[in-house]
Design goal:
The protein is α/β, with parallel strands linked by helices and 260 residues long. The chain folds into two domains: 128 residues, Rossmann fold, CATH 3.40.50.11220; 122 residues, CobE/GbiG C-terminal domain (Nucleotidyltransferase, domain 5, 2-Layer Sandwich), CATH 3.30.420. Helix content is 33%, strand content 25%. The protein has ten helices and twelve strands. The chain has a seven-stranded mixed beta sheet with strand order 3-2-1-4-5-6-7, sandwiched between helices. Strands 10-9-8-12-11 form a five-stranded mixed beta sheet, with helices on both faces. Helix 6 links the parallel strand 8 and strand 9. Helix 6 packs across helix 7. The longest helix is centred in the middle third of the chain and has 15 residues. It is elongated.
Length: 260
């Protein structure tokens, strides 16, 4: 996916700079007069609305670091069809939220919002109906170099034990120390489940109820992976399947909302 990142302020430019590596060096657009470190934009612009009119048809994904209202006014004249429009994601200057604003499914904005949130430690905001009804969160941990098929087998078994289906999973979650595990990423891709990355700092600071392991703490510096990640990735989540280990993979299943 060819991507562009557009920022409007110096603070927004700093946030945009944090996205360049994780998003595979997207094209960067900054306003005239805004300088941010060593960032070299593809182009400077005077008007976000005019710039958007030019670049909207050129990219499959656009990330705007600015207020959502500005983005709505900028893209409004350009919007044609969900089958043709690029995915549009909006990030605030404080990098708190990554909002899937346009073309969540066909344009890939939902997945792009998760990628952006993983890069920034932000909360992904996804409002498409088919995603909002999903309440199951899967936390995943593994040994180094675990194969995709092992992760899939463990995931299948854990969901069966929890009485849930993969189609009900809102997203999977793992810790940042495991974000480069191909087996985890590929298994989630095979199932079409977005993968959230939870920071080690967030896990260390989490005071929720989960099974703490001195062995995990010795190796990763945190007291757990799959259980706290599942709980942290959801809203008011509770465990419906505690940590289950299978062939080098650990899975925990959580459900959003109050316990019955």
């Amino acid at each position: 996916m060819t991507l562009a990142v557009v920022a409007l302020t110096a603070r927004g430019a700093a946030v945009a700079g944090r996205l360049l590596g994780p998003l595979g060096q997207p094209h960067l657009y900054l306003p005239a007069g805004v300088a941010e470190g060593q960032l070299e934009p593809r182009r400077r612009f005077e008007s976000v609305i005019e710039l958007t009119g030019e670049i909207f048809p050129l990219y499959r994904g656009l990330v705007y670091v600015m207020a959502a209202g500005i983005v709505v006014r900028s893209i409004a004249p350009c919007v044609r069809s969900k089958h043709a429009d690029p995915g549009v994601v909006v990030v605030d200057d404080a990098a708190r939220f990554a909002i899937s604003l346009l073309s969540g499914h066909e344009g890939g904005a939902n997945n792009l919002a998760v990628r952006v949130s993983n890069a920034l430690g932000a909360e992904p905001v996804i409002t498409t109906a088919s995603e909002t009804v999903k309440r199951v969160i899967v936390g995943i941990g593994s040994r180094r170099g675990v194969a995709r098929e092992m992760v899939k087998a463990a995931l299948d078994r854990a969901l069966q034990m929890a009485g849930k289906d993969a189609n009900a999973v809102r997203w999977a979650a793992t810790i940042d120390r495991k974000q480069d595990e191909r087996g985890i990423r590929e298994a989630c891709q095979d199932y079409g489940i977005p993968l959230r990355i939870i920071s080690s700092r967030a896990v260390r600071g989490f005071g929720g109820n989960f099974n703490r392991s001195p062995v995990v703490k010795k190796h990763l510096g945190v007291e757990g992976v799959c259980e706290p990640c599942a709980l942290l990735a959801g809203k008011d989540a509770h465990l419906i399947l505690e940590k289950t280990a299978m062939d080098g993979v650990t899975i925990a299943v959580a459900m959003e909302g109050p316990e019955n």
